[in-house]
Amino acid sequence: MSADADFSQMRALAFDLGKAQASVFPKFRAIVQKTMVDTKKDMRAEAAAAGQAGSLLSSTISYETKETAGGVNAIIGPVEGGAGSMAFLYYGNSKSGPVIKDPLFALQRNVDKAIPFFEKILGDIP
Fold first, then answer.
1. 3-state SS, residue 4
2. Three-state SS string across 99-115, please?
3. How does pLDDT run across 76-99, given as a tens digit for each residue?
4. With bands split at pLDDT 50, 70 and 90, how would you rate the model's confidence at 37?
5. DSSP-assigned letters across all residues of 42-100
6. Would the pLDDT of 24 be above 80?
7. Where would a tag sit more exposed on the chain, N or C end, judged by fewer CB atoms within 10 A?
8. What distance in Å separates the CA atoms of residue 4 and residue 76, rounded to the nearest whole number?
9. Which pLDDT belongs to residue 48?
């Protein structure tokens, strides 16, 4: 007993998705970059509003993106060392609680704004 299977449509779909990746990935990367820039601006404004220590911290907030086989990874926050070590303003210490709102709020707010753009890119895949 034998069976035949035609996988030509699957092969064509895989080929089409591969072509789509070449046009989709730059758009995806641009949205991630814009989201990180907006989040950095929000985090810097929140830190600067927390007084002199927050103003020192705000200038150290930056982001970094890395492209991997799985997509784009992004890290955002104060650079360690110098004023960037004042990240305790986010978490508090033994003498005080947090002074600046948790950075995850700024990130989530900007990710929520970016979702419709990601959806549009996915919807435009031929």
1. coil
2. CCCCHHHHHHHHHHHHH
3. 988 888 776 787 888 888 888 898
4. very high
5. HHHHHHHTT-HHHHHHHTTEEEEEEEETTEEEEEEEEPSSGGGGGGHHHH--SS---SS
6. no
7. N
8. 52
9. 94
Q: How many Å apart are CA 58 and CA 51, to the nearest integer? A: 10
Report how far residue 46's alpha carbon sits from residue 55's, in angstroms, rounded to the nearest whole number: 9
- What is the pLDDT at residue 14? 61
In the structure encoding, which two tokens stand for residue 102, read together?
């948790």
Type of residue numbered 2: S
Burial 61-76 (b: 16+ CB within 10 A, else e): bebeeeeeeeebeeeb
What are 97's two structure tokens? 């609680």
33: tokens are 């970059």
CA-closest candidate to residue 30, choices 123, 106, 120: 120
Q: How far apart are CA 38 and CA 111, in angstroms?
A: 10
Structure token pair of residue 77:
């926050």
